[in-house]
Amino acid sequence: MDLSIKTVLKTIMIDTNNKQSQINTYKAPKYITPTIGVVGSFWNKYYNSFTTEIFTNKNYKEIYYTTDKSNPKTSNTRQKYTELTDSLHLKNNTILKYYIISLDDYESQIYTYKTPRTNIERPNIKVYNSSRILDNGQQKVMIEIGTLNYVKIYKKEGNTITDLGYCVPAQEYTINKNTTLIIETIPNNYYQKQTFEYDEINKQRTRMNYTYQLQIPYQKIKLYLNSKTIIDLTNTTIYNNLNNKKIYSFNKQTKKLSLITNKTLYESNILIYKNNNSLCLDLYDYIYGILIK
User: Fold this and answer.
1) Per-residue b/e over 70-94, b at no fewer than 16 CB within 10 Å?
2) For residue 139, what pLDDT is reported?
3) What is the pLDDT of residue 76?
4) Which domain range does residue 132 map to?
5) How many domains does the chain have?
6) Contacts of 59 (CB under 8 A, 6+ apart)
7) For position 40, which CATH number holds?
8) 12 assigned to some structural domain
9) Looking at 6-15, 107-116, 272-281, which range is the least confident one?
10) How far apart are alpha carbons 113 and 270 in whole angstroms?
């Protein structure tokens, strides 16, 4: 008999003389949620290495690790990690393997983290489910960003996008079946922006953004997309706003036009603005794919 972890089974026995036993109660064993670990590291000029820390979603008893590719559960080269006093100083391309023993002596999986090839490499994003089972339809996740560069987190629920700020390795993010986390690395002089999505169904996916730019002479016209009006420049207010360097966005999902303050987008949108004597349309969209480094 297969039982849910929340099932309470009650039984009685009746013998051949029709005598009934007492009620026996059985509850499935407690489901143990393992301790989840993620790594954060940064280039430390003083040590000429990556200063690396392990963050967990709850208190733990012990963490053991190796840096020679051996199994930290069985290796005689393993070492004990002490959060309050230990910061690991790891060279480039070092493979860190570790596992966590929880307060109730439950052993986690073996986690593997590889330090970047260079100190300017783009962060390596991994999303871990830290709750395993849903609680009231919700799930908790932790995000490993590797090198502690700037990574922004956004939460999308329906057509609403909330800026959650910069990613914190030790933080858990709560989502439900209608939530999508948008994880975005901040570009710099060495690498371009990289975007991921995470949701309960599709898990972690790489988002490949693309933009088409069109320009037409600025004039009082109506623009359509699949018989739906995108923008009506015969409308005096819209025409004057564009003349005054204001920016419009047409959301292809909600089919709504709105004024925005900057050109940063996270949805399938068409940006509409005036540049000199041209009407500019930036068609922003994305597909999902695998990032090849």
Assistant:
1) eebeeeeebeebeeeeebbebeeeb
2) 86
3) 95
4) 122-201
5) 3
6) 103
7) 2.60.40
8) no
9) 6-15
10) 39
Q: Are residues 189 and 174 in the same domain?
A: yes
Higher pLDDT, 29 or 192: 192
Report if residue 16 sits inside a domain. no
The answer on 146 and 81 residing in a single domain is: no
Distance CA 157, CA 105 (A): 37
Residues 6 or more apart in contact with residue 25 via CB below 8 angstroms? 8, 9, 10
Q: pLDDT category, 46, cuts 50, 70, 90?
A: confident
**Residue 291: pLDDT band with limits 50, 70, 90:** low
The verdict on residue 150 lying in a domain is: yes
Integer Cα distance of 253 and 238 in angstroms: 21
Of 151, 181, 201, which residue is a domain's last?
201
